[in-house]
Each structure stands twice: as C-alpha cells, then as structure tokens.
Amino acid sequence: MSAFVTRKIDTVAVLRCLGATSRQVLAIYVTQAAAMGLVGAAFGALLGVGLQLALPHAVGEFLPVDVQVTLAPAAITTGLAVGVWVALVFALRPLLALRRVSPLQAIRRDVDPGALRRRGIDWPRRLVELGIVASVVALTVTRTGRVREGVWLSVGIGGALVVLWLSAFATTWAARRLLRAGWPYVVRQGIANLYRPGNQTRAVTLALGFGAFLVSTVFLVQTNLLRQFSGAGFTSRANVILFDIQEDQIASVTERVRANGELLQATPIVTMRIAEINGRPVASLVGDTTRRQGMWALRREYRSTYRDTLTSTERLAGGRWSTAPTRDERGATVYGVSLDRNLANDLRVKLGDRITWDVQGVKVPTRVNSLREIDWERFELNFFALFPTAAIDRAPKQFAVLARVPDPTRVARLQRDVVTAHPNVSSVDLSLVQATIGRIIDRVSMAVRFLALFSLASGLPVLFSAVAATRRDRLREAVLLKTLGATRRQILRILLSEYGVLGALGAAAGMVLAFGGAWGLVHFVFEGRFQPDWLAAAGIAALMMAITVTIGLLTARDGYRETPMASLRES
Length: 571
Known about the structure:
This protein is of the alpha+beta class. Helix content is 60%, strand content 14%. It has helices spanning 2-7, 9-17, 22-59, 73-95, 123-144, 147-178, 185-192, 201-233, 250-260, 282-286, 295-299, 341-347, 389-392, 408-421, 430-468, 471-483, 488-525, 534-555, 557-561, 564-570; strands at residues 240-246, 262-277, 280-281, 302-306, 314-319, 326-327, 333-340, 354-359, 362-374, 385-387, 398-404, 426-429. The protein has a six-stranded mixed barrel with strand order 2-4-10-7-9-8. Helix 9 (250-260) runs antiparallel to helix 14 (408-421). The two termini are 23 Å apart. The relative contact order is 0.12.
C-alpha cells in the first residue's frame, strides 16, 4: 500500500489542482481500499467454501463418520467483514499521508522527494496505529475464545515483529559500517542498497521473517508431535494386552501367552481411593472452596500397583524411591509411595506429606517419598501411584498382562484360547490400534503440511508486494547505472548480492523466532519435550532465501531490460 500511495502522488497533486480537498482525496482512496478489501474477502470466502466442499470428498474414506457439509452464512459474513476491516484499517495508515500532497507537487515531483514525509506528531496516524493494535488483539481474542490467551498471542506477535524490526535495523547499521572499499563493486553496490534512502530492508525482513516464522513454527511443532507419538507408541514391544485377570487365573493365562509368544509384563492392579491427606479427610478437602483445581484427583478411584523397581517409562523427578517402611509417632508402619508429578501438583502434596488410602475398606497410611515423570503416551502399563510390594501385596487384586506375539494368526489363537478358558478376561490387539492411529497420524500430517504450504502461499503476495514497493526507484537506479556503463550482468549481480543478504537475514530471523515459538507451544501447550529439527529448518530457510531472490529478480527485470533512452523519454 505504501508503494501504491507513492505512485499516486502525481494523481493526487492533479486532483488538488482541480479543486479537490485533502478530505475528498482521502475519501476517494479509502473507498477504493475498502472495495479492494471486499473483493479480496469475497474471493477468499469463495475459496474457503470450495475447500470445505472438496475436502470431505478427498479424505472422506479416512473419516470414521459421514460428514455432511453445510454452509454457515454467519461465518461467511464474519469473514467478509473481517476482510474488509483488515484491508481498510491497514490501508488507512499509509493513505493518511496523501493529505500532505500539495497542488505544487504536480510541477515539482522530481525535486521534492519528501512530499509524504511526516512533520511533527500526526495524531490521526497514531489513532490508526492504535486501531490496528486493537484490531489484532480483538481478532486473536475472538479466535482463541479466551481473553488471556488472546492477549498473550497478540503480545507474541508484537514481540516477533519487534525482533524482526531490530534485526533489520542491525543489518542496515552493520552494512553501513562494515562495507569495505576492497570488495568487488557489485557486492559493494548491493550491500549499499541495504541502507540507502528508500531501502526496503525493513519491509522485506518483516514480510519474509514473519512468513518463515509461521511456516517453520507449524512444521517444527508438527514434527515434534509426530516424533513424540511415534517414538512412544510404535517403539513399544507389546502388541497384545490382557486384563481383568483374577489371581487364580494368572498362571493359566501366562502359560498360554508363553505358548504363543513372549510374556513382557504381568502386573498386579489394586483398586483404592484416597481417604485422608495430612490428616484431613477427602470430604473436607472436596468442600474446600479455595481448591478450584484437582478435584478429579480427590474423587477418582485409583488402580495402583506394587513393585520394588521403576520401569522404562518412569523417571524420578524428585525424592528417592525406597521400599523400606518407617514408623510414625504412634509406632504404626508407614510405607513410602511414589506419585506421578502432575498428580502430586493437583493433590497439592509434596515430598514427606502423608496420604492415607482406602484399599477396599482397609486404611493404608503412606508417606510420599518420591515423584515420577511418566511417559503416558507409550503403550505400557503406567500408574499414578506406585507402592512397595510389602505394602499392598495381600490386598485383593487383578492382573494385566502385556505380551509380544509374532504374527496375527498367533494373536487370534491366543485371544481365542484365553477367552475360551476364562470368559471374564478381556484382550486388545494393540497392533490394530497402532495401525489405525498410524493412518490417522498420516492424515493429520498431510493436513498440517497443507496448512504450512497454504501459509507459505498466502505470504508470497505480501513478500512480492514488499519487494515491489520500490520498483520505481529501482528502475531509475538501473537506468542510471546503465548510463554510467554498467552491463546487465553487473546489475543482475548487484541484485543477487542485495536480495541474497535480505533473504538470509529474513530467513535467519524467522528461524530464531520459529524455534522459540515451537518450543513454547510444545512445552506449554502440548506439554511435551521439544527436539529441534535442524535439517528441516535449514531447508525452509534455503527455500525462503530462494523465493526472496527470485521475487527480487522478477520485480526488477524491467530494470536490466530497460534502455536509458526509453527511461528518459518516459521522464
């Protein structure tokens, strides 16, 4: 829009000569911007409706339910209104500069380059900038549905823009001070273009960096989520689980498992509830109005186990796992218990606190001696509470068995034999679950990649506009260089030097922001462990650099094709 305003200076000056006021001129172009916003929003709405109608046919066979597509007039109307408003509010900021174009500009356009330059504080412009910020916050709040998340998302967007602006400022500062006379001329000229008057370093860095930030963040989050799930579920050796096994049935079931495959785990399960925490009954804790979170942990029935060692899915996060009992002040035996760390947070207990369990009518006092990090995503038997063997091994219990059976035929035979001998025992073929989840993951991955590519495609016009904003100045510079004897090859190398640096700067800044944003999403939103994908990030950065250079050369192609005489005739 800034480039559009610059090109319209002469037209506005002529209108002012013909008697148009600054308000009339502003109203003309504001109406034009609103009309363009409406056309763009309408085209976007048609594209969205088309995708909505087409996607169920493309992926319908992979969905577990029949999808009936219906148009939502309210959503379409909202999209149109948002599109027009965004176009209008973002166009109004540069359009306000047209108020300062005087009628004299019609006869001195080549000697007054500061026609749009601001003098003093422009309060209408400040109000428009405030409206832009408010619009961004309002959009994020309405999209997230929560004020706090929307405000923090807006702050994140603002922070990303500030980082990109600072990186552009640092680039112009470094280019001005680090340029050396001994460098080749085309390189010096290309680097000098980064800080010359009317440079596009800031615009290209913001557009390219923010686009790289969005695309890379989506891709890195997708990669981490898929890696976590695949690394958890598909590295598990077990492919059959048998549960609801009674004590007098466990020997028979394990014998049949060994006859068909490998027995991995035979885990006892004891049902219980929490009776007291630090001497306070659960009923008192539930009635405490100061406890707004974690009520589920107080009310639920726990299925716990006992053993004297930790498994591969567990990691100590605090304390020390000990099976030795202690004595309380009354001389009663108190065993240690290890809790899941998140459960301990919801229960508001810490190391050393006492929990009394109601184990099917029998009170069992325990003391929290350790906290565990549990990988719940793996196809393993994991438990919120872990007891030493001596604490509850005499309690009534059931068993669950994990097995590895080599082929589907033996899996079916094992399930048939166990159910025939013990009808109460249930079994699940985990290989079928894993295969189904794998197909779902593939489709989700395709959808996420589609969104990433869609984001990239949406950002290309913005990047193209940012690079083309100074096309008029570039054309004059290229003609001047040709007049001074520069060849097309030299002009091309100058452009390659400039846009190569701009592409590298924008991609690098976008990558830094993407790693930070992806880490925050994976860590705080998805509660996972972030692992950077350096190779993929380098590939995206290289792609963004190539796009920048390509767009720069395309927008400046007239510059190294134009002859000096043609430019002089145009002037």
